[in-house]
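Weekly modeling sync, notes
Attendees: AB, CL, MP (scribe)

Item 1: holo prediction request
CL wants a bound-state model with pyridoxal-5'-phosphate before deciding which constructs to order. AB pointed out that an apo prediction alone won't tell us much about the pocket. Agreed to run with the ligand included and paste results into these notes for async review.

Input as submitted:
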Amino acid sequence: MSYDVERIRKHFPALTEGAAHFDGPGGSQVPTVVGDAVARTLCSAIANRGSVTAAERRADGIVVDARRAAADLVGAEPEGVIFGRSMTQLTYDLSRALAKDWGPGDEVVVTRLDHDANIRPWVQAAEARGATVRWADFDPATGELAVSAVADLLSERTQLVAVTAASNLLGTRPDVAAIAAKAHEAGALCYVDGVHLTAHTPVDLRSFGADFYVCSPYKFFGPHLGFAAASPALLETLHPDKLLPSTNVVPERFELGTLPYELLAGTTAAIDFIAELVPGAGSRRDRLTTSLRALEEHEDTLARRLEAGLRAIDGVVLYGSPERHRTPTVLFSVDGVAPERVYAELGERGVNAPAGTFYALECARHLGLGDTGAVRAGIAPYTTESEVDKLVAEIDRIAGEHA
Ligand SMILES: Cc1ncc(COP(=O)(O)O)c(C=O)c1O
């Protein structure tokens, strides 16, 4: 069976409001099954995790199921999945745990392509330990981050390389596997931000060579939380600050306080929903791969249509044109019209494509867009061809009116 966008759209109550949602890179809309799973969990008999009462067993089962689902999505082991409030919070926590072993003379590498959540926690952790930060630059003309841009910064003192699997501003997908291999050759760990990528393609943590892979279910139909995946053996070597009475087992010792059971149930439902985008047989991991391949094809087709439409308009500037396959995320501006104005005018006409830097502040500055950024349009699993045509027509009108 092929990708049927109209069938998929019926699962999203939010779409009945009528807006065309190009704001998916900021967070996707949510299918009914996910909302139902959250509400059902909140309203069912539930207690803290345990094995004595049915309520305790329910909470425990929800956590175990969510770890399995998250592991299936990114190709990890369930025992290596850590849930947290957000990718940002998890990265701060993990950076502090990892930095306990750093000292003066040690180095960490961050990139200007990254969202600030995969930069600042490392910069601040390095500062706190007297370690040095090395910055890898991407090519502002193409949006590409060359492997050599990272490799040239590595030394025997490099402790960690933090790199994005895909830029939330430009859609660039660096060659993470090659970067991770270089990091490992230097004896460093590789921490990969998968928040933007995971919504758009099948992911395999192992083939990336990522020591940590972090993402946020609210970008792919789920509730607002994050998870990090790593090998349980690596997690065993880390000792985060934690409460005395809380368990010291992995991965629980990284999860501070009580887990949000309802959001975990929603996460499992979201991952099951992705696995059913294109109904098929096989394990959940197999179905996720099949569905995400079909989704990627659908989104790529629409992204090419959007790019071609925008390129044909006088006065529209598109940023980044990487040769490598990128996510269906397009960053652009209209000559003579502030991005905020384009965003507002589109919004008035039911087209949601926000403007800004989207916390990829270093990236926007390196592109010459300062702290203002540009307009970002992301294709989502529920985006249709006619929505793309509507966005292009509206930009054509705005560019024409301001020419
Ligand atoms: C690429 C990327 N990394 C990190 C984040 C931060 O994720 P969270 O909101 O879960 O902290 C975002 C959020 O937009 C993102 O797009």
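Recorded for review: The longest strand covers residues 158-164.
Action items: CL to compare against the apo run; MP to circulate these notes.
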